[in-house]
Amino acid sequence: MAGTTKRQGRREDQSTAGSASDLIPAGQLASHFSAVWEDGARPADGASAGEDEADIGHTIHRFREERQLSLKDLAAKSGLTQSFLSQVERGLTSPSVASLRKIAQAFGAPLAALFQGPSPQGKHVVRRDQRRQLMQPGGQWRDYLMTPNLQGRLQVIWSVIEPGGGSGDEAYAHDSDEECVVILRGRLEFWVGQDHYTLDEGDSIVFESRIPHRNVNPGPDRAEVLWITTPPSY
Fold first, then answer.
1. What are the residues whose beta carbons fall under 8 Å from the beta carbon of 226, sequence distance 6 or more?
2. Sign of CA dihedral 18, 20, 22, 23
């Protein structure tokens, strides 16, 4: 994953009134959202059961076997090397989001199809113990799907990103019209095209998902981030 990156100045309009911090002070966001979840229910802590199944390497291996593909076949379809794919499946390396998208496309599926866990009961509500999740090898980040399926017009993902974790050095893009990212805890360095932003707790950014973008948590604290895209394409 990408390491710490030299920060540049903010590019946001700080003169605009009516930000989220007017309702909940930025310094209180973390405690506010901690109160929303009962003990053991927050994303970083609430899904230790089935952790192996949620690990992306385990999931990719299972998808490949279900489709009766060899590592050579998957390498040819994805444009990635056999040795890299083998290391990903064994949890020895951390794939970037761009690489995960190539793997998912080789399976003929969106990246969100790799999320593992129980299927939510019903069309509207996702209970905290029914969140489908995706975990990177080493636990540098974990994604939780907060919407009940991939068929709607909106996709919401809650990410927990450890210091040094992020989407990787290679920028990625996907076919959504618009994406909103909200920093609920910590800090995130974010690039959209050639533009760089430092996003702190309580900040948000909106952009077109088709523009290559990437991110990294510079630390020192864990970041918790909400991603909202329409239509779903992650």
1. 156, 157, 158, 159, 181, 182, 184
2. positive
Q: Check pLDDT > 50 for residue 8.
A: no
Environment class of 116 (CB within 10 Å of its CB; exposed 0-12, middle 13-18, buried 19+): buried
Q: What is the mean pLDDT of residues 73-97?
A: 91
Distance, CA of 116 to CA of 61 (rounded, Å): 13
Q: Which two tokens stand for residue 223?
A: 């970041």
Cα–Cα distance, 133 to 114 (Å, whole number): 8
What is the separation of C-alpha 211 from the centre of its chain, rounded to a whole number of angstroms? Answer: 17
The lowest-confidence range among 15-19, 33-37, 105-109, 149-153 is 15-19
CA proximity to 143, closest of 151, 135, 153, 131: 135
Q: CA angle, 201 as apex, 197 and 203 as ends, to 5°?
A: 50
Identify the residue whose tokens are 């930025």.
Answer: 26
Task: Classify residue 40 as left (phi > 0), alpha (psi -120 to 50) or beta.
Answer: left
What are the two backbone dihedrals, phi and then psi, of residue 231, each rounded to the nearest 5 degrees? -75, 170
Q: Cβ(157)–Cβ(177) under 8 Å?
A: no
Confidence of residue 134 (pLDDT cuts 50, 70, 90): confident
Task: Give the residue from 203, 158, 215 showing the smallest Cα distance to 43.
Answer: 158
Please state, in angstroms and as integers, the Cα–Cα distance from residue 191 to each residue in 148, 173, 234, following that order: 29, 12, 17
